[in-house]
Amino acid sequence: MRVLLATYGSRGDVEPMLALAVRLREAGAQVRVCAPPEQEFAERLAGAGVELVPLGRPWHEMVRPSGKDAAARMVADLIEEQHGTLAAAAEGCDLLVATGMVLFSAPSVAEALGIRYVFTAFCPVVLPSPDRAPLPGPGGPYPPEETDVRVLRELEAQGYNDRFGAAVGAHRAALGLPPVASVRDHVFTDQPWLAADPVLGPWQPTPELDVVQTGAWHLPDERPLPADLVEFLAAGEPPVYVGFGSMRHLAPDLAQVAVEAVRAQGRRVLLGRGWAGLAAADDRGDCFVVGEVNQQELFRRVAAVVHHGGAGTLFAAALAGAPQVVLPQAADQPYYAERVAELGIGAAHDGPVPTVESLSAALAAALAPEVRTRAAAVAARIRTDGAERAARRLVELIAADRKERELRAENAYVGLLYDRLDLQRELAGDRLREVHRQERGGTAQSRMERDTMESTHTRRIAELHAAEYGLCFGRIEDADGERQYIGRIALADDDHEPLLTDWRARAAEPFYRATPARPGGVVARRHLRSKGRAVVDFDDDAFGLDDQESSGGEGALSGEGALLASLTARRTGRMGDIVATIQAEQDRVIRSDLAGVLVVQGGPGTGKTVVALHRAAYLLYTHRDRLAKRGVLVIGPNTTFLRYIDQVLPALGETEVVLGSIGTLYPGVTGVTGADGERAEVAAVKGDARMAQVLLAALDGLRQLPEEEWTITVGRSSGHRQELRISRALGERAHAAAHRTHEPHNQARAALVERVSSELALRIARDRDGEMDLDAVADLADSLVEEPEFQQLAERLWPVLTAEQLVTALYGSPELAAAADLLGAEERELLRREPGAPWTEADVPVLDEAAELLGPVPGSAATLPRDGLSAAELEYAKHLMESFDASMVDIETSLVDVEVLARQYRGTESLRPLSERAAADRTWAYGHVIVDEAQELSPMAWRMLTRRCPGRSMTIVGDLAQTGAPAGLNSWGQALDEYTAGRWRSVELSVNYRTPSEIMRTTEGVLRALDTGLAAPRAVRSGGVRPWSRQVAPDELRAVVEKEIAAMDGGRMAIVHPEGLPVDALASLAGVVAAGEPSALDSPVVLMTPGQSKGLEFDSVLLLEPARMLAAHTRGLNDLYVALTRATKTLGVLHTEELPAVLEGFEER
Prior knowledge:
Layout: E1 2-8, H1 11-26, E2 30-35, H2 39-47, E3 51-54, H3 68-90, E4 95-100, H4 106-113, E5 116-121, H5 149-174, H6 183-188, E6 193-194, E7 212-213, H7 227-234, E8 240-242, H8 254-264, E9 269-272, E10 287-290, H9 295-298, E11 304-307, H10 311-320, E12 324-326, H11 333-343, E13 346-348, H12 356-366, H13 369-381, H14 386-437, H15 444-466, E14 472-478, E15 483-487, E16 491-492, E17 498-502, H16 509-513, E18 522-531, E19 534-542, H17 560-568, H18 584-590, E20 597-602, H19 608-622, H20 624-627, E21 632-636, H21 639-645, H22 648-651, E22 657-661, H23 680-687, H24 690-702, E23 710-714, E24 722-726, H25 728-740, H26 745-767, H27 774-785, H28 788-797, H29 803-812, H30 814-817, H31 825-831, H32 843-854, H33 871-883, H34 898-906, H35 914-919, E25 928-931, H36 939-948, E26 954-958, H37 973-980, E27 984-989, E28 991-992, H38 997-1001, H39 1004-1010, E29 1018-1019, E30 1028-1031, H40 1037-1046, E31 1053-1056, H41 1064-1067, E32 1072-1074, E33 1085-1088, H42 1090-1093, E34 1098-1104, H43 1106-1111, H44 1116-1124, E35 1127-1135, E36 1147-1148
Parallel strand pairs: 1-2, 1-4, 2-3, 4-5, 5-6, 6-7, 8-9, 8-11, 9-10, 11-12, 12-13, 15-17, 20-26, 20-27, 21-22, 21-25, 25-26, 28-29, 30-35, 30-36, 31-33, 31-34, 32-33, 34-35
Antiparallel strand pairs: 14-15, 14-18, 16-17, 18-19, 23-24
Helix pairs in contact: 1-14, 3-4, 3-5, 8-12, 14-15, 15-34, 18-19, 24-32, 25-26, 26-27, 29-32, 32-36, 33-34, 39-44
């Protein structure tokens, strides 16, 4: 940040610039000052450590012009002298502040360089106000008979044009700038600054001019007074100071007149030499001549100050509380003389040339005791922070200007990216249209090529459309100045040079991982915020600071402005992606290795759900060759939750991820009710790992053996009728044959059928005295299998079963449930289910376990090779895959496999998306499985999920402190050690981004009571609103809830109530929808249980009856913890019973 301060004038012009320079430097700016090359100025600036750039001739060599032509020549000469120096000094600066006689050259120099320009006056009357007549200066003289201020101002503007228009126009032309219509308005600008104290020089606001009054630019002077001056001051009563600063053209006898006037008042005299070189007329001891001294200190020790009315001297005297006598000499000095008289802090002499009598009279008035009292009172009102305020505002302006320039540059680049995106869309659309123009017939290979290309281009178009919103959201820069833009997808130019890096690429990792403590080669990071295709704001993260200076180490937030803006935005009922604001600890989870099981333990608000979804997108991007053909499965707690998250992955360009819940993982079973439709104790029994053995025992119980011999009759239709006896031993041998296959039940039945039919055929052959050879016996065995009574026999010995039939039999038969001797009587009773009752979510793992035991029913589509495809079809498809034109499609990363090719060759169905094929196939083996709210899953659910992912590549996300299901987890090892011992690893998300710190404090008692050993995640923001509680009578609850709903200021609210609480009266309130259907989240107010609210977030939460929530079941504390942590802004509790002791930090209403 670099600033140039420029002035050409006397010390009254330079001293304020020095004060501003010091304050700007303290604010972090690099400052230089252009000023006349006076020795006095050089010493003052050097003493403060401020660089001086000499500008033009020394000020004391300037000759006051006489006449209009002389003034015009002087301005032209000044512009010529100043231009080169100003332009060179301003090069690379962000801002130019000017005053004095650089006003004709400085604004054009700033405009040519494209930097902000600020003109500053030190007196209100210098500025062209329509409420005050102009000074006699550059625009005058004016007709004495004219009194209309507006007419005079018009004459002033015309005078500026007439005298200085040519010089200013020539200067601007040399800079390549257009002429200006009004020189006066050009040099003063439409927003000049006024560095005058509001008490001494107030500005009267006017619509024509937007003046910024900062206060006087004052710098405390710490210099000591000379010893001889101190000795003089101590030798008698306080003297009267007489000095005229930088004024050079004074009346010849002014010093003698002033000394005599002071002596006439019986006072000693301090005579300031000044630029006029004033000297004492005699050597009497009551007069002391001083040079340049610390006036701030001196004026506190004098009886009065006689001066010319310069802004600097006036301010110093007023601040010291010294009475003043002003002898105005020129320009704005008569105005300040008037102000001294108006304020009652001194006297204004009539005219610039005094007599002993006139000055003595003015001194007498100023030395009156009431004037000193008044001067002291005014001194207390004067501000001394004008330079500091001006510096702060200038720094803000520089930042705003820089931001505006940067925004223009970022918009230009992002616009280029969108142009490239549009081009890619157009190309993909053209290719897809070309595919559609092809004939639908042709060879199998041509059909396959066409359909594959159609799938590829359609997917590419979807990816490009998904990138529309927030295409580019940031960039990083290294020490060499190389910039890398990060966005939703990768884009390159025609030469394949990268324009945009996909956020999932390894090269984008530093954007998320860099911190001030560990920048990793990143020197700058910028987060872009967009609206539509326009970049509307950005936030920069600072790097390269010392650890002590940095705003944070490993825990520093990345893109804090963008992050907090997203966190405090109103909820919409749908989760959005966080690709632009992923934090470092979240990024480490997202980019963790694919292999093995990753457990992400994260408390409320840590973003574990959205991190898991971004991990899915990252894994598909990074390992598409491994995952594209098998897919990724994301499991959520319920269908409402799935609706809440269903827009995240499409927004990231991934549409081939299967979203589901435990209740959706068993294809073909419809009408499954959610977890809330099952009593907790029933769900606990169904989820118990013992159910696997109970099912096995029940299945064994359905396989019959003859207690006494059975008889079947065969050959009824062939004339060879024969009765056959079936012994228990035969049944046992048949069972043993089936078991030896180690096949699922339905597939093992074939071995049983073969054993029974073979033994019976041999028996018949023996009965026929050996008339049959072996081939005839085999044919007979085959024919026996077709006999109706044989089939009935096989069904009794080893029935063909569906999973639904087996589970229905188990639930309907206490005897079957007792077969394994694992369940108690109460548990067996809990399993009882009325025939035809709907399946529940807890039934699905049981059904899946049963299906695994049974295998597919013989003759069903599932028993045909690879989706009913013949071996010949599969072999031909393999040949096509190997002969594909590699330039047409990348087989390694294509979604096409041999099975898809074969089905396409058959031509019976279209190229279905992987997500549809996987969801319809119970035995589908996914490449990766992500489980959210995993702490809720039962052991049976874990068995089912591990079957879906035989490679054990999984991401497990949850919070043990939020476990609400009776069959849920108390530790992660409880679920994983059985299946992935030694292959699972855990990480913990420690930062709560969502929940305000005020709300998290209310959970501390609950978390202590849970005693999980887990620390609450650290809240990074304050919401500014303290959570409240209110006890109400039961009959008041509905009315109070209605009032809270009416007070909502937009956003979304959840009313969270305990299970079993009657809420029909609340559900009837306007705008309230009870949870159950996923569309409930579209309502502004949702009525739900803690279990239904899990994983969701709302602007406001109204928690009802926490005591009843605690008592609802054994996981009541967990439910309460969940309910307390759903809000992003406000939390209120309504209770009819006493507030539980574990709740802390609530403000009672």
